Amino acid sequence: MLQRVRNFMRRRDDGTAGRLNMLLSLMNERLASEFRPTVTYVGNNRVLVGTRVGDRTIAYYVEADDRLLSPWFIVTGQFETEVTNYLLRHLRADSHCLDVGTNFGYYSCLMARFCPVGRILGVEADRHIAELARDNLFINGFHEIGEVVWAAACDRNEDITLYRRMSRSGNTSIVDVGESFTTHMGEQPVQPFTVQGRKIDDLAERLGGRVDFIKIDVEGAEPLARRGAANVIRANRDLSIVMEWSPGQIAAAGFDVAEFADEIGALGLQVFILERHSERPLDISKLASLPYQAAIILKRAQKR
User: Fold this and answer.
1) Are 40 and 59 in contact (CB under 8 A)?
2) Phi, psi (degrees; rounded to nearest 5) at 160
3) What is the mean pLDDT of residues 62-88?
4) Cα separation of 122 and 149, whole Å?
């Protein structure tokens, strides 16, 4: 049923498509609310979660001892529903996608499931987590169109030091939060490690230079990732960037939030705020004061 709706939408160029987009999103939400994930502990600190994303089934290994992402995902099978719904509305069967900061590969697998003749590249800095994401591609049969690279998105191709959060791998970052913070959170001290930095411009070569979607979630290092993607942004006119907006993390990583907002504006990118069934434009001058968002959307500003 949902596939028939999508096919009809592609043939329409009037207001009907917008209304059907909303209907499709509501149908996806209804499916998600009625579905309960299947959960099995499989050993080696891994839980296997079978869930539905939109109208498709996807299997994921997640860390059993993770305190950040695993608990709610295991209980509900859902993850960042507004970001998920945005991708469900806009991904095409042949989209080329970069998932930067893929963690356990939720978005990499989602992209692969909905882009069966596209190309998917996940990028993850923590080697153990990169292997988890790689295995998730394989157990779903996505390895022929997707792969995971063990690297950190950066503005130059050289080693970079990150700090691993032992029970919150999704918060591993370039910032050493300090032992007093981890003690307060009931965690072990962070573990520093070195990983190769890679520019998105170079990583995109694995996709043949064509990139339709980039998802970026790198815990405050978004300015580094963006600076390493100048050529990709310039060359791909229809590119959509789905980027976590965390001013606190960006500032903690040593970057000026206002300067970063200015960099985005200088690239001719327009900012959109995700709402339940749509995207609302935001004046670039207001970006620096925008509070935390699971993701904002950056697109080439349309000429009038």
Assistant:
1) no
2) -140, 145
3) 96
4) 6
Model pTM score? 0.88
- Name the H helices within the chain: 2-10, 15-34, 70-76, 81-90, 106-114, 127-139, 179-184, 200-203, 222-227, 230-235, 247-252, 257-266
Concatenated DSSP letters of 182-205: HHHTT-PPPEEEEEEEE-HHHHGG
Query: Cα separation of 61 and 47, whole Å?
Result: 6
CA 299 to CA 265: how far, in whole Å?
Answer: 11
Closest CA to 151 of 225, 92, 209: 225
Q: What is the mean pLDDT of residues 223-251?
A: 97
Report yes or no: 226 and 154 within 8 Å, Cβ to Cβ.
Answer: no
- Helix-strand-coil percent breakdown of the chain, rounded to 5? 40, 25, 35
Q: Give domain limits for the chain.
A: 1-34, 80-300
Spatial separation of the C-alpha atoms in residues 277 and 141, rounded to whole Å: 30
Q: What is the token pair recorded at 114?
A: 């909905």
Q: Do 226 and 255 form a contact (C-beta atoms < 8 A)? A: no
Q: If you classify domain 80-300 with CATH, what class do you get?
A: alpha beta
Q: What span, in angstroms and rounded, lies between the C-alpha atoms of 75 and 71?
A: 6
Which candidate, 47, 80, 77, places its Cα nearest to that of 62?
47
Single out the residue of 15, 52, 29 nearest to residue 140, CA to CA: 52
For 283-302, the pLDDT digits (tens) are 999 999 999 999 999 998 76
